[in-house]
Structure formats: structure tokens, C-alpha cells
Amino acid sequence: MAAIQDKFGAVGCIAGVATAGIPQGALVAQELGLPFIYVRSKPKEHGTGSMIEGDAATTSGKRVVVIEDLLSTGKSSLQAVEALRAAGYDVAGLAAIFTYGFDIADENFKQANCPYVTLSNYNALVKYAEEHQFINEKDVNLLKQWRENPSTWGEMAAS
Questions:
Q1: Which of 24, 103, 114, 127 has the fewest CB atoms within 10 Å, i.e. is most exposed?
Q2: pLDDT in tens, 15-59
Q3: CA 79 to CA 41: how far, in whole Å?
């Protein structure tokens, strides 16, 4: 909660990204005493066809922080941010539990003018695992190789 308040200041609503950001977002909203909404990846195919669920009558236009579980490239998170902005919300930024720390995510969030904060990241996880001997030096090297280029890592590991 402190990370959200420190990074974004006062907000009037918390929005979770469906589906993994919903439980964490609901808990954050409850802890901060704020209304909670969530954002789907695409509009409902029936009923109202909405992407945003919750009490829009009392939350629309408010300053909102988006909650996500994991950031890789930021694509799905930023789709939620854009849906909120299109619906009239003032998106203060996004908070996530974990990030891989990919440069593409930093660039995507910068282009979208959406600051973000995470509770942990890939490098911290690997460092902790090594320091506590959950993994060995060989594992660390493999994890670092994966981190450099995950899209081709499987090909490299097989050769």
C-alpha cells in the first residue's frame, strides 16, 4: 500500500487487470478503503459489452491506479490503461507484484506515459535464490542467459 501511495499519491479508485490482477486489486482497494473495478482484455460478448466492471457511476473520472500481477512487455497492462483512459478515468499509473525488467516494458510504459512500480523483479529473485543457495552458479548463468533473450533461449539451450 505504501508503494502505491508513495509513487502515485492520492487516488480515488483501484482497478485490477483481469484476471490475475483482480484478487490483488481487490485486496489493495479494501486495504485503502477505495472502490474497486476491473478491466477485461476485450469487451464482453453479451450484455452491456463493457470492458470495465464495477460501479462506473461512482468511479468514472476518478484518479485510478491499475493493479497487475506480472509485467513482461506491458502489452496487456497497457490495454487496460487505455480502456480506462477512454472511459474517462485519470490513470495515475500501474502497480505490479513482479517484473522481468525487460527494456521493451520500460519503453512501452514510457510511450504510454504511464509510470509504474513493482514490488519485486527478476534480478532480485535470482540474487535471493543464489544467496540462499536455492540455485547454484550454473543455474544463475542459465537464468542470466534466458533474461538476455528469452524468445530465443530455448533454441540456444538445445544447441
A1: 103
A2: 999 989 999 999 999 999 999 999 998 877 787 778 898 876 677
A3: 7
